[in-house]
């Protein structure tokens, strides 16, 4: 080894963290260093809990006391001295966010660049007819407003169609906007609609600055009607009002149809139907206008872009009609399981259900197994607009009648789940709900008008549904299909997208899609995503600590990962990798083996040096690398009783191609294949989920795509053992 100094080496003296036995260690900087040894020998205690912990502690202590209160100072590891320590970054296998709004695209920031790309060079189309949307002039807007009024049901009535001409000035923005009302008043605007309520521009009302607000200037109030079959309205006044609104709002005008029951124009209308018209983007056939395209327009986490049905989640919790009822019981006996107590005490809602089903010829004392398909539809989907009168005694002891429509159990339970703020109540209701793809956006998370914006005839949702590999191919050939101005605008954006996608491919994640939820990724996949992000940051002089980055990675992709680790070293960084994989060990610049055994019998360094040196040594790892020792798999010959097979047919979950598969009982079964080939989709998300739904009545059901499952009688229960942590409470210990 060359001369040892803190500028060229990391020097550790007297490390006693956990089971380490007063260990001294000298590691070269700007090299790929691998810690190996049997499990529990002290590798992570040295890498994570000593070297990284001290590096992080020193960095946090260098910050101000104000910053430290947010970050928290790590405990000082049990070590005498560490010299030559660089700023440390830990890339471990911790579970990522379980927030359903977090995806591979948002974690890697590729989706942010996609939003910017579509906002700058996207071509908007009409979500109804598919025509490309073009700007409208004032005459087209005027004609569209008149057509809107004449087609409205109120047009033939005496009061005519009452219109509010509005100029949108604040769109879903936070603030108090104190000066805005004064500015509008000086422009001759007497009223403004603030969050749906008409107010004077001279109002002293103060808006809550942390809430998002919608503010429109009220330009005019008009009525379009007919007299003797002839349309009657003030044409020039309408055109002038539209022009003024467009001038104030920079090209947009909202025409709101007032449907309040009063004959005269109400001062503060409550029932309004808004129609947006734009000089920038509008379809002349369907009279659909969309606002100016901005990056937030493509965000499923913003109200401007998120699907209104699923609020940008792509999925919706819907009622599981099979688990909520007990068909052998009647309504009065508690057939609707979560409402059994309500039928016992005869609440108003229970009386409503009884009245509805009696009107459909199902009595309260008849078992639900006798329900016809039409009666079942009424119970779950509702009775339409029909109003039912329910008689009873109110809380004051007086006889009263309650009139109500019945919307069905499905809508009732979904509404209760969405509106409740109680975690315990939501947990109880979740037993009877199942997560399914949103029926409106079909899992795309965005509004139809957002999905109608295309780049090279593809929507942003289509691109996020592709694998990283296909995304790279698409963007590598995109330039040939763009105009010169679009190329100039998109070049820096597409470069970032391609670079980040290539980094993901370089760590063996080319099979992932940008739209995949972060919560469905394994610990190894999340670790490699963070590793790819670090490559993209191009930092130098950093100490990276990695915990088994090859875990869950097929041997075919190991070489890609090792090249990535080499790239980090070549940038001028030091890497400490805790690893058992042979290929990674043999690629190391410097090796350290901990041992000789685990726990109290470990915590010592049994070897340190190069790969060629370890092959000549008698340490445990060296003996296996040199071939002195070998692993011989001893196959158990006992066949066990033949108790049948679990058979699955038509599995199409994620990337499974309608496969049929059998799992024989009393066997040790291994499912293998390259990363992303569908192993977890089959075993965890299809086999386990389908077994749990059939064997465990309390299991929270997930939507899973398969045709049939055959379960032998010998199978009584199923358990899933995955990479989820057992818990973080300090009171939880292993005994």
Automatic annotation (TrEMBL):
NCBIfam families: uvra (TIGR00630). Residues 320-431 form the UvrA DNA-binding domain. The keyword Nucleotide-binding applies. It is found in: Cytoplasm. One of its GO terms (cellular component) is cytoplasm. InterPro entries: ABC_transporter-like_CS, P-loop_NTPase, UvrA, UvrA_DNA-bd, UvrA_inter. This is UvrABC system protein A. Its main location: cytoplasm. It comes from Candidatus Collierbacteria bacterium GW2011_GWB1_44_35. Keywords: ATP-binding, Cytoplasm, DNA damage, DNA excision, DNA repair, DNA-binding, Excision nuclease, Metal-binding, Nucleotide-binding, Repeat, Zinc, Zinc-finger. GO terms for biological process: nucleotide-excision repair. The keyword Cell cycle does not apply. Belongs to the ABC transporter superfamily. UvrA family. The lineage of its organism: Bacteria, Candidatus Collieribacteriota. It comes from the Bacteria.
């Amino acid at each position: 080894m060359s001369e040892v100094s803190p500028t060229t080496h990391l020097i550790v003296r007297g490390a006693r963290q956990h089971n380490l036995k007063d260990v001294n260690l000298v590691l070269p900087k700007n090299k790929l260093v691998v810690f190996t040894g049997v499990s529990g020998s002290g590798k992570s205690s040295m890498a994570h809990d000593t070297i990284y912990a001290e590096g992080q502690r020193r960095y946090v202590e260098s910050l101000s006391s104000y910053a430290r209160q947010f970050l928290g100072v790590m405990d000082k590891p049990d070590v005498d001295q560490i010299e030559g320590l660089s700023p440390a970054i830990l890339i471990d296998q911790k579970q990522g966010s379980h927030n359903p709004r977090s995806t591979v695209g948002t974690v890697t920031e590729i989706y942010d660049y996609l939003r910017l790309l579509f906002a700058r060079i996207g071509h908007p189309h009409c979500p109804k007819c598919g025509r490309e949307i073009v700007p409208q002039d004032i005459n087209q807007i005027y004609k569209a407003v008149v057509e809107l009024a004449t087609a409205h049901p109120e047009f033939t009535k005496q009061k005519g169609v009452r219109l509010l001409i509005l100029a949108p000035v604040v769109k879903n923005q936070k603030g108090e906007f104190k000066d805005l009302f004064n500015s509008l008043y000086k422009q001759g605007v007497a009223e403004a609609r603030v969050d749906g309520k008409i107010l004077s521009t001279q109002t002293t009302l103060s808006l809550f600055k942390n809430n998002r607000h919608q503010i429109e200037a009220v330009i005019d109030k008009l009525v379009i009607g007919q007299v003797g079959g002839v349309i009657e309205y003030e044409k020039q006044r309408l055109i002038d009002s539209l022009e003024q609104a467009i001038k104030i709002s920079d090209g947009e005008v909202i025409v709101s149809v007032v449907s309040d029951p009063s004959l005269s124009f109400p001062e503060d209308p409550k029932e309004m139907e808004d129609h947006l018209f734009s000089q920038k983007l509008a379809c002349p056939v369907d009279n659909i206008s969309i606002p100016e395209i901005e990056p937030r327009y493509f965000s499923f986490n913003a109200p401007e872009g998120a699907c209104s049905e699923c609020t940008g989640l792509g999925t919706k919790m819907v009622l599981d009609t099979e688990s909520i009822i007990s068909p052998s019981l009647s309504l009065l006996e508690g057939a609707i399981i979560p409402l059994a107590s309500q039928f016992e005490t005869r609440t108003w809602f229970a009386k409503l259900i009884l009245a509805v089903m009696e009107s459909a010829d199902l009595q309260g004392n008849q078992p639900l197994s006798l329900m016809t398909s039409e009666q079942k539809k009424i119970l779950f989907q509702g009775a339409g607009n029909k109003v039912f009168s329910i008689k009873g005694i109110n809380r004051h002891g007086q006889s009263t009648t309650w009139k109500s429509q019945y919307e069905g159990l499905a809508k009732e339970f979904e509404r209760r789940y969405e509106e409740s703020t109680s975690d315990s109540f939501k947990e109880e209701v979740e037993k009877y709900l199942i997560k399914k793809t949103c029926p409106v956006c079909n899992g795309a998370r965005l509004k139809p008008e957002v999905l109608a914006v295309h780049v090279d005839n593809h929507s942003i949702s289509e691109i996020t549904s592709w694998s990283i590999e296909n995304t790279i191919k698409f963007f590598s050939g995109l330039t040939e299909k763009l105009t010169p101005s679009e190329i100039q605008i998109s070049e820096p954006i597409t470069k970032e997208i391609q670079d980040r996608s290539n980094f993901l491919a370089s760590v063996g994640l080319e099979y992932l899609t940008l739209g995949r939820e972060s919560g469905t990724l394994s610990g190894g996949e999340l670790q490699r995503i963070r590793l790819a992000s670090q490559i993209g940051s191009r930092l130098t002089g950093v100490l990276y600590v990695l915990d088994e980055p090859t875990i869950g990675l097929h041997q075919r992709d190991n070489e890609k990962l090792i090249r990535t680790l080499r790239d980090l070293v070549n940038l001028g960084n030091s890497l400490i990798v805790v690893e058992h994989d042979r290929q990674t060990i043999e690629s190391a610049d410097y090796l350290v083996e901990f041992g000789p055994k685990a726990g109290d019998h470990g915590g010592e360094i049994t070897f340190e040096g190069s790969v060629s040196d370890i092959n000549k040594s008698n340490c445990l790892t060296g003996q296996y690398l040199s071939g002195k020792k070998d692993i011989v798999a001893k196959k158990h010959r006992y066949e066990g009783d033949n108790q049948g097979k679990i058979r699955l047919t038509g599995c199409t979950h994620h990337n499974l191609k309608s496969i049929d598969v059998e799992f024989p009982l009393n066997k040790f079964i291994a499912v293998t294949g390259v990363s992303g080939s569908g192993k977890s989709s089959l075993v965890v998300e299809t086999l386990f989920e389908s077994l749990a739904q059939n064997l465990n009545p309390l299991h929270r059901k997930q939507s899973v795509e398969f045709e049939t499952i055959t379960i032998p009688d010998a199978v009584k229960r199923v358990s899933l053992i995955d990479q989820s942590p057992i818990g973080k409470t300090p009171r939880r210990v292993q005994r």
